Amino acid sequence: MAPKGSQRVVNKIVAENRKARFNYEIIDTYEAGLVLTGTEVKSLRDGKANIAESYASDEGDEIWLINSHLPEYLQANRFNHEPRRRRKLLLSKREINRLRAGINREGMTLVPLKIYFNEKGRAKLELALAKGKKLHDKRETEKERDWNRQKSRLLKSG
Question: Residue range 36-64: average pLDDT?
Answer without folding.
Answer: 87
